[in-house]
Design goal:
alpha/beta; 2 domains; six-stranded parallel beta sheet
């Protein structure tokens, strides 16, 4: 999302203190940092790449404005020569990344930045912030879409997402991953996402009678006539909706649907479906909402519960069962020298890399993580050059194009990997050349230490 606000200081303080240390040590050489996820959260075995567009727009326009320099000066922490340097700092580097909408897996670099080390270091926080959040939500949303098995799912998360930016990015990332729309009107305006919504319980309870609320609403919105029927008694609400539907039919209109937001959603859907079918209103759709996530949707699908679509909110919008990824941005090359980290549980792989994808019979088969200059016959290289010399290398794809990319690739991901509970692990291997280099660097580091 583009914004007028200058976001150059949206970074951690230690990025700036390191930057001054680099500057005063005259460490201005190129470096490469690699962004990856170390491990899978519970019941995950794939990730959906998202957030790259925001990162590239941030990098292309990066500049600390006068207000930012004045603020840093007021902290009495930084040297004047460094602040003078910071005034003219721009991002001049290269970015290679897995495009948005593509599937990736743990330990695979989803993005690599090569730039003078100060530039590459300062932008770390923003990059992780955007890629982590949007990939997290896109992955959660993809699970919901898969669990719904062809039933439409829409985003109801805005009111409980973690702030304004998160609310916007949740709408974008969930649509990218196959959601049919969002309740977030601003996201509809900015991203072109279909907007969805009708009424809340307050509308119903503001009238003395539930039927009066229903009549008022369908009079105002005859072509968007979806009634919320669980304010008092869901089955009684369904019977009143039948009355409204028959009244609409006499006017040449049709009741489009009803929404159930509380109670035993499975049992109520079955009973409500029977009420409408028995009344001859078989085209009335039933929408389920109220604290749902992919596990609920999978259970409803398994039991063939007669929901036609779902509104999914809080648990998707905060990825409640897995609210973060263990995402890291690590130095892998410094001034042409391969480097790595050996910390237990937080180790990394050296050098610039490429991810190659092998497919068989139209399905994703295996990925290979290789050195950047390697070639794997018959495999697709996933990391693409998306920024060069600080400029975006090609026009950014539209959200609709990214969504189409996701839907195509997700259809080719084996069902065992997409399983909602206890998924299989997708095979990711490291080439012999990369493994050999890692062993060599480990030996050098241990000798030096």
């Amino acid at each position: 999302m583009k914004t007028e606000e200058n976001l150059s200081l949206l970074t951690d303080l230690y990025q700036l203190t390191m930057a001054q240390g680099y500057f005063q040590s005259q460490k201005l050489e190129p470096a490469t940092f690699s962004l990856f996820i170390r491990s899978y959260p519970p019941n995950r075995s794939y990730f959906v790449a998202a957030g790259l567009s925001d990162v590239l727009q941030f990098l292309e326009t990066f500049a600390v404005d006068a207000a930012g320099i004045d603020y840093l000066h007021s902290r009495r922490l930084f040297a004047e020569d460094f602040l003078d340097f910071l005034k003219g700092l721009r991002f001049t580097g290269e970015v290679r990344a897995i495009p948005e909408g593509r599937i990736f897996f743990k330990e695979e670099p989803v993005l690599e930045v090569t730039a003078p080390i100060i530039e590459a270091q300062i932008v770390e926080t923003f990059i992780i912030n955007q890629i982590n959040l949007q990939s997290l939500i896109a992955t959660k949303a993809a699970r919901c879409v898969h669990a719904a098995r062809g039933r439409a799912v829409v985003d109801f998360a805005l009111r409980r997402t973690h702030g304004l930016d998160a609310g916007m990015k949740v709408a974008r990332a969930s649509y990218l991953a196959g959601f049919a729309g969002t309740s977030n009107v601003r996201a509809g305006q900015l991203y072109g996402i279909p907007i969805v919504g009708t009424m809340a319980h307050s509308f119903v309870s503001s009238f003395e009678k539930e039927s009066d609320a229903f009549r008022a609403f369908v009079t105002s919105f005859p072509n968007n006539s979806i009634l919320l029927i669980d304010t008092y008694d869901t089955l009684a609400g369904a019977r009143k909706a039948v009355e409204i539907g028959k009244e609409m039919a006499t006017r040449g209109q049709s009741l489009q649907g009803v929404r159930i937001d509380s109670g035993d959603l499975a049992k109520l859907a079955v009973a409500v479906r029977k009420i409408f079918d028995d009344a001859g209103l078989k085209t009335v759709r039933i929408i389920g909402s109220g604290g749902l996530d992919e596990c609920d949707l999978a259970d409803f699908s398994d039991a063939n519960i007669p929901y036609d679509s779902y509104g999914v909110g809080t648990k998707m919008g905060v990825s409640a069962d897995a609210p973060y990824f263990d995402m890291a941005y690590k130095l892998v090359e410094s001034n042409g020298r391969p480097v790595l980290k050996l910390s237990a549980g937080k180790d990394s792989w050296p050098e610039r890399k490429q991810v190659f994808r092998l497919c068989a019979s139209g399905k994703l088969q295996k990925d290979l993580v290789a050195l950047c200059d390697e070639d794997v016959a018959g495999a697709e290289p996933l990391l693409k050059k998306v920024m060069e010399h600080g400029a975006i290398a090609a026009p950014l794809p539209s959200l609709e194009s990214i969504r189409a990319t996701f839907l195509d690739e997700f259809a080719r991901l084996p069902d065992s990997i997409k399983a909602i509970r206890n998924p299989a692990t997708y095979p990711v291997e490291f080439t012999a050349k990369l493994q050999t280099l890692r062993l060599e660097i480990e030996k050098k580091v241990k000798r030096a230490e």
